[in-house]
Amino acid sequence: MAEQNAPSATFCYFRGARFPSPPVSPQGLELVESFGVRDDDVFVSAFRKSGTTWTQQIVSLVTTGSNISEVSRIPLGKRVPWLERAGLHADAPPIISQLKDSPSPRLMKTHLPYNMLPKQAREGKGKIVYCARNPKDVAVSLYNMRQINDMLQLLTWEEALHDFLSEPPANLWWNVIPEYWCHKDDDNLLFIKYEDMKKDLRGHVVKIAEFLGRSLTEEQIDEVTANCTFAAMKENQATNVSRDPLIQEKMLKRGKEKGIEFVRKGQVGDWRNWFSPQQLETFEAFHREKMAETDLTFEDEE
C-alpha cells in the first residue's frame, strides 16, 4: 500500500482528461484551444516521462543558432515553457497567457493529447515535434518520478503499474500515442521515437534541425549533440533539476533521500528490472489488444 503520510494527489478534469493540479492550470487548459499560433512556433510534445526533457533540450539548442553552450545553462523551463502549466507564483497568470507577448520563435512543451492542442496547430500552423517511448519504460519512469517528487503520492511499483494501465481513456497511453501516430505524415508534425534517438542522437539532431528549417554547421551539430547526451544532461543543472538546490529543496527532497535524480538512467529496456513474469504477461496482452489497429511498434533493446 502507498505510505499513509504521502500527500493526496489532486486533479482537475478537462474534456474527459485528468491532469495533476498543480502544476497544470485549469485556467490554462481553457485557453489552449483558441491560443494564437505563429508560423514559427514550435511545440515539443510527448507523453509524460517519454523523452520530453531530452527533446526540449535538442529543439532549444537547434533553434539557438549560436552560443549554444551558454544557452544550455539557462533553465530549460524558461527556454521551453510548459504550455498548460500554472503560473510560477500563486498570483501569476497561467503560462499560456504570458506566452502571448513572448518574442519569436516561441518554444513550448506540452503533454496534451493531439486533440487538445491549439486549434491552429492542428490545422497546420507552427511545428510539432512529438517524441514517443516504449510504454513499459514509460511505466517504470513514471513510478520513479513518484519516488523523487514530494508533490506526488507514493505508490508501490504494483500500484503505479495498475494506475498506468487504468488511466481515464483521454489520458491512456494507448489512446494518446496512436492519435499522434495518425498524424505522422502531416507537414507540421515530426514523430520521433525515444529508442531511435538512443541509437542515433546526432542523426536526430540533424532531422529535427531540418524539420525546423534550421541550417547548422557540422560543428554546431556536434556541439548540440554533445550537449544532449544523457551524461551531459545529468550533470547540467539546467536540464537535471535534481542538481538545482532551490528546486531540490522545494520539491525533490524525497529524491535526494532515495538517491534518485530527475535525469535517472535514460535506458532502453530498463523495464526488465521491474516487471514480474505475470505483470509482463498481463501488460503485453493489454498492449497487443490496444495496438491491434496500428502499425506503430517499439524496440526493447539499446
TrEMBL record:
EC annotation from Swiss-Prot or TrEMBL: 2.8.2.-
UniProt entry keywords in alphabetical sequence: Transferase
Alphabetized GO MF terms: sulfotransferase activity
One GO BP: sulfation
Glycosyltransferase found in the keyword field: no
Pfam assignment, any one: Sulfotransfer_1
InterPro entries associated with the record: P-loop_NTPase, Sulfotransferase_dom
Protein's recorded name: Sulfotransferase
Organism listed in the record: Branchiostoma floridae
Gene: LOC118410720
